[in-house]
Write a structure and sequence with these properties.
globular; 9-stranded parallel beta sheet; sialyltransferase cstii, chain A; 9 strands; 213 residues
Length: 213
């Protein structure tokens, strides 16, 4: 693969049918939960810096915006099989120059225009933010129970981040589609549980993370 090549879209395999998937987002609430994360059992999608809490996650998920700058700090820590990128810019392949064999693990999906329903296309994810896109990704893998950590939609990140404290209007936009998405997931028999004790999101079931130990 040349430096300017763009991988084809990846059809997500349904390898997790009926399983539980934890999604490790980067909200402040993840920090006090970091000691619990290694004790959890199931599939894992680490969203960006969430990989620091679970380097062996089944998936490291990166969105396309500022991917190269973010990836330099986190990709070398990842030991799992799949790096899934939402969107793609050829310059991001600089990763392959510093981490041997990395390019064989990178998969590309794109974003659907319908953010209010779980996606029906195996190479598309919905959601205005990375955490919500990861919900779609877990669904495509076949997970029927999706557990969210660090899904705060308020405040800052649990670790140093290029945008340490996102503007409030970002969260407002990200959350605008969640009530419809929650209703669609329920209709499809998908249980989504939010384990962030400080989350601004109220449309998903709430549980303490200890309930999943």
């Amino acid at each position: 693969m040349t430096a300017a090549a763009t991988p084809p879209l990846w059809s997500v395999p349904r390898d997790w049918v009926g399983e539980r998937c934890f999604i490790l987002c980067t909200g402040e609430s993840l920090k006090p939960q970091t000691k619990i994360v290694p004790r959890l059992k199931g599939r894992f999608i680490a969203v960006k810096h969430g990989v620091f809490t679970r380097p062996d996650a089944d998936v490291l998920f990166l969105s396309g915006e500022r991917t190269e700058a973010i990836s330099r700090a986190i990709v070398p820590h990842y030991t799992g099989p799949h790096i899934v990128v939402r969107g793609w810019r050829p310059a991001d392949q600089i990763w392959g120059q510093t981490v041997p064999g990395l390019m064989t693990r990178i998969k590309r999906v794109t974003r659907t225009k319908d953010h209010e329903h779980l996606t029906a296309y195996p190479n598309h994810v919905g959601g205005y933010d990375s955490g919500t896109s990861a919900i779609h990704l877990a669904y495509l893998f076949g997970a029927t129970e999706i557990v969210l950590l660090g899904y705060d939609m308020r405040g800052g990140h649990f670790c140093p981040h290029p945008m340490q404290h996102p503007p409030a209007d970002h969260f407002t936009r990200h959350m605008s589609v969640l009530p419809a998405l929650a209703a669609d997931a329920k209709a499809k028999g998908i249980r989504i549980v939010n384990c962030s004790p400080i989350s601004a999101v109220t449309c998903f079931e709430r549980q303490p993370v200890e309930a999943f130990l």
